[in-house]
Specification:
The protein has 95 residues and is an alpha+beta fold. The chain has one domain: 2-Layer Sandwich (Alpha-Beta Plaits), CATH 3.30.70. Helices cover 36% and strands 32% of the residues. It contains three helices and four strands. A four-stranded antiparallel beta sheet has the order 2-3-1-4. β2 and β3 form a beta hairpin. α1 packs antiparallel against α3. The termini are close together.
Length: 95
């Protein structure tokens, strides 16, 4: 299993737009083969920080997700709404 934590710092006046775009990505991604969970979370101390927390069956499933048209489309639209570059961390379970 692969876990992804993708943290985004959203510009002050762009939060509503970023949430809407992110939720469209959540809904579509949850339908993908190999997606175990896909959630949008908002930081409790800073509402301008939105984080995607994802679980994928395999690295291959994650790679297919990242190559999909809907991901590339949303990334392109969200990028101008960001204060800084997205922080992406990929993890695997330690047994």
């Amino acid at each position: 299993m692969i876990r992804v934590v993708a943290r985004n710092h959203i510009k002050n006046d762009k939060l509503k737009e970023a949430v809407k775009l992110s939720m469209s990505l959540v809904e579509t991604s949850r339908q993908e083969e190999g997606c175990l969970s896909y959630d949008l979370c908002q930081d409790t101390n800073d509402s301008q920080i939105l984080t995607m927390i994802e679980e994928w069956f395999s690295k291959e499933a994650l790679e297919n997700h990242l190559r999909s048209d809907h991901v590339r489309d949303v990334f392109k639209k969200v990028e101008p709404l960001l204060e800084k570059e997205t922080e992406i961390h990929v993890y695997h379970k330690v047994y």
